[in-house]
Amino acid sequence: MAYQVNSTVPIRGLEKYFYADGSWTIIVDVVHLTGNRSLITTNASYTIQCLLKRYPPMRTRLRVNNNQHLLDILEYNSEYFSNDLFFSTVPIGNNTWENLVETRCNENPYCKNGTEIFPLFHFMLVYDDKQSDDQLFHLILFSNHCVADGRSGIILINDFLTLVTSPNLFEISEPNNNKTLPLIGELIPRPFGILYPLVSFIGKRIAKHNFHQLVRTRIPFKSIPLTNCQFISCQTQLYKNKFLFASTSTDVYEKLHQQCRSHELTINSSLFACLLLAVHRCFPIGKNTQLKPFEISNAFDMRMRLPGSPLTTSSVGFFVGLHELKLKKSYSIRSTQFWSLALESMSMTRNSLKRHWIPLTMHVFADLLKDDRNLRELGQSESEGRVCELGFSNLGKYPFSCDYQQGVLKIRGLHFGNNCSGYRPGTNMYVACAGDGQLDFSMVHEIETDEKAKEFFDYYIRLVETCADRTSCTNETTLEQLLTRADSR
Known about the structure:
By secondary structure, this protein is α+β, with helices and mostly antiparallel strands. It has helices at 37-54, 83-86, 97-105, 150-164, 184-187, 196-213, 252-262, 267-282, 338-354, 357-369, 372-379, 450-468, 479-487, and strands at residues 5-10, 26-35, 60-65, 68-74, 87-91, 116-117, 121-127, 137-144, 242-247, 290-291, 296-301, 320-325, 331-332, 386-397, 403-404, 409-418, 424-433, 439-445. It has a six-stranded mixed beta sheet with strand order 5-7-8-2-16-15, sandwiched between helices. The chain is globular and about 65 Å long. The N and C termini lie far apart (58 Å).
């Protein structure tokens, strides 16, 4: 099939990290819905064609040529872009949506002897064909991370649901958009001016040292090699990711919002503080009377944080900034108040956004990726390609109405996550909120045992629920008291 290429962009920056050496990274957005499911199946074909015209990244192909990673932005042509490529329906039968997500994310997406991935986006409608309209069904969007991030999935899902429920859908004449947005590395300026080469040299040495230190981790990991990569020319082993999903009760978001607002803090600060405490409780070191510094890699949406960039809140692409956050000192479990820890968490986050840390982290990492030997050294090291122990991403509250066409379709929840088959964090924690007001949690991990992974995941959620309860977490509540109350939930 002869696709016409509009333009080709070489991947040289952080995006290369997701696909080096035949690896892949899939983002998954799962919206849980009630309403008229048949409307989706009836209108999906025309909706998909509208989205293909609207968003050039949906027409993108990843191509590998002599170890070069290239993004081909294809011309829109309905003859070549069949709807089956971008949309499917799956009766759930005896399976679960959770198993479908884990299986698909760990499936090798390459074709043509490991030289191409296309398409890079796919919607999947998962349902029980015996259920009524008031029972949940699921719309799942799988996206490749080199051209999408968590915000991109939210934008596409909202547009999809808006279009399929539009009474005038077939009268919409979507213009063909060929505007290509720059990659994130081109938008983030290099810090430190003429001193950057020296700073980059030092930063690369520190990063490589830290990678080797991951042989001795606080969180115990056990890698599971993938066996479905025979035709990919890999010089490193690729690994399976396991997925966990859960949700709080429907009033937790509002309660946590009120708690944080009364302390003049962000919800993210309390979520991050609870994650530090969950690591402390589930993976103890020493006498465990101190909350010791532990590094967590954080993802930030950079769309509106890059002065002078062409990005908007509705830009689809990979526009994420990464930075590691770590407490500067240990805190007493017995005497430190929880809200003081949350304040410190908020300060760390804001400082990383205000200063040069995110641009420095991203450019140093991109510099590392320029030499493939650095990645292969990491992949063949005892850390087995892990770049950090724990990552955290807070997608926030769904920014659009959850009610489409006055209840024709209604979002009840949202889970988000991504796998990394090659170079990756050992564990990633994700939080989102949509629909009925609960917090939806996902964890993608390689933790040593399933029992330990579930213990950590469940305990983190219990801590968040305890923190949201103002009778359990007051102004004076210490870390020790919060942990004790979470234990008893």
